[in-house]
Structures are given as C-alpha cells and as structure tokens.
Predict the structure.
Amino acid sequence: MKNLKLKSARAALDLSQQDLAEKVNVSRQTISAIEKGDYNPTINLCRAICKVLGKTLDELFWEE
Amino acid sequence: MNLSGILILFSIIVSILLVKLFQRKTRTDNSKKYRYDERQEVVRGKGFKYGFFTILICNGLSVCLKIAEVPLFAELELPIIIGSFTGIGVWVVYCIWNEGYFALNENKEKIMILFVTAAIMNFIVGIVAIVRGTIIQDGKLTYQSINFFCGLLFIIIFLTMFLKKAYKDGKDEQE
C-alpha cells in the first residue's frame, strides 16, 4: 500500500526524495520504494524519517 | 606447480590488488568501506541466494553429466567456471535491476568504465587465443576460452546497467 502520508509530509517541507534520502543516509530509491509501498522500513529508519520530517511514527506509518 | 599455474596464481593476485586499488578510486568519500542502506542489504542478500543456487544447479548438472559420461563441450573445469560466472551474473544483474548493487558512496560512471574495459580486455585475450588456435583442442573448448565467457559476463552486466539507467530515466520523467 502506498504511503501517501510520508509523501505529503515530505512535500510539505519542500524536500525532494533525494534530499530526504541524504538526511536519513539511504538511497533515493529506498525512499521511493517506501512511498510506493514496495519496501517496509525497519523501525530505525522510520524513526530517522520521523525526526527529519518532525512527525511521530503514528502520523507517518500507522494505518487506520 | 608448473609455469602456467604460477602465472595464473600471479595474475589472480595482481587482479585482486588492482580491484582493491580501483575500489579506493571509485569511492566518493574517504570511508574505508562501501556503505549500503538496509533495503540494499536485503536486495544483495536475495541476489546472493539466487546466485548461489544458480552455481549449485549449473555445477551440479556439469558433474552429473560428467559422471553419466555424457560428452560435454569442454573438460569439466570449464563448465564449472562457466557455472560460477552464471551465478555471479545472476547476483549482479538482480542487484543492479533492484538498485542494490551500487553503494551510497560509489561512483557509478567509474564502475561502468571499469566493466567496459574489463570486457574489451577479455575479448582481446580471447581473440588472440582464437588466432593462435588454442581455444579448441580435440573438438572441445579449452580453458583459454574463459576470457571470452568473462568478457560476455561483463558485457551482460554493462548492458543491464545501461538498460536500468534508461528505464529509470524514463520512469523519473513520468513521475
């Protein structure tokens, strides 16, 4: 399932996939795969992404 | 150990040293290791599994055919080396296609240049072997044809890199 919350949170900060990838020390393709729902990140990567985007884990990765 | 054995061992050692030297040049930072992210590690692990089973199947098949005395296209060592090349090819192609081959701190263009150079050099050695007439003896391929198969492996890897780049560029434009 696509992670649209992550995509919109990133876009809200005007960050490209490459910018976010560099901040959390992964490749751009990994961020793209997470947004498309092709890859489930580990909790460590989720936390790193949340810190950069200023969101909580629930806000970005919890599905209702 | 005879002279050709010593030469092969020497060339393997020189190749390893050259690869190590080139690895330093292809890193984009001063770190001593290539860095991969967690998704890339997963892709590389899967690719390694597929490559390993490919080698197992190819080499197992070669040995079984040899035991069954089925005439092969070469002596046993060549099909085993080709089986290993096939396994390496499966691993590298899988990793490239799933974007797990190149490290975060690796210069892709330099690696592509290296692979093309390696392919050309191997093909040249293969052509020299053909001209000398040492590639086939008694109707069977000799180990001197290894360079041809090695060159073929590098060409396949380079083509995968090229196709992936073209496919990715097209996809990026769509996004």
Chain A touches chain B at residues 25-27, 29-30, 33, 39, 41-42, 44-45 (CB under 8 Å). The longest helix of chain A spans residues 43-53. The helical segments of chain A are 4-12, 17-24, 28-36, 43-53, 57-61.
